Protein: Probable peptidoglycan glycosyltransferase FtsW
Amino acid sequence: MSAAANAVTGWQARLRARVAGWLPGGESAVLERDWVGATAGQPTRWVGFDAALLWVVVGLLSLGLVMVYSASIQLPDNPRFANYEPTHFFSRQILAISMAGILGGVTLTIPMRTWERVAPWLFVAALILLVLVLVPYIGKVVNKSRRWIPLGIINFQPSELAKLAIAMYAANYMVRKMDVKESFTRAVLPMAIALLFIGLLLLAEPDMGAFIVIAMIAMGILFLGGVNGRMFLIIIAVLVGSFVLMISFSEVRRERILAYLNPWDELYAQGKGYQLTHSLIAFGRGEIFGQGLGSSVEKLHYLPEAHTDFLLAVIGEELGLVGVVAVILAFFWMVRRIFMIGRQAIALDRVFAGLTAQGIGVWIGGQAFINMGVNLGVLPTKGLTLPLMSYGGSAIVLSVIALAVVLRVDIENRQLMRGAKA
Structure:
């Protein structure tokens, strides 16, 4: 065997050991057998994708569907929803999950190199939609916020597309700026300006929660992409200062912070602290094993937005500590697995794919953490849904599409490991 052949064989062995080491034992063994077949010149068989990740996603979607039905079945008793059927939100959630499944399947067929090519244009499209949603007669106003564009069977929320767009754009941006990532003006400042523009559009809706998540995604990818630590700390300081100023100059946001610090104060218990106090009451009633599915009292018009922002509180009341811990562990495992897939891609020199996957992990994990923190009183009240579970068509569809992108990254990792072209 020639020296060149020996070098290639050695490189393959080192790469196989590095990536296969991150896979569970059974999958690692399958990957080993398929790699041997490929290097021996024998036909390889498709090793598939991370079925466990898929099943966790399906499990969260299914539990979310059941809990949305439980939390919303009584809403027609409210004059605001008097014209709705008891199954209205349940039916629309099924429609959203069905659409998400179809679009997620289509997403699985799109190579990551295609996403890398269109990432800047996807970002531009998201910006255009964020502008359009602010235009009267195009954007729909709900609860004094203009965040949706009516599309007949579904109200589309551009901020959800912006989360996926910023994950892909930031990953693409870091690949292009890898050689100058130590430079503030050439690597960090352009992304900061883009975030500032998005922030102005989102705060005009207003949707500060979405802006926080988008900023987390962009900053997470910059950090994972290797931006200089000192510059990263400066950016964080600027963002924190911006949020403090936004809170200081907004009486509504300032009252939310004060209510969060003491929700039981008589000044806030029936106002800005109302949701938090009833959320805590729901968790308290649930105790260890819950009151039983469908037996929540707080959802009976005491806890506002029980089927969206405060779905976890209903889970806590009906399924107890056991149900809440199960949801938290499912999200923890899913986000950890997403980051592992991203690491595998980066180890295979697929930086865009790896950073995109990790950006999606920051999105899902960060938003879930904020929602859970708000429900449990750890964080100030903020209008963010629980990914994959809360009611919301746009959120469900875009979250599933994003996770389909992660599965596509995993598929291409496995293809590359067995010697095929990704």
Remarks:
- Confidence is low (pLDDT under 50) at residues 1-5, 24-45.
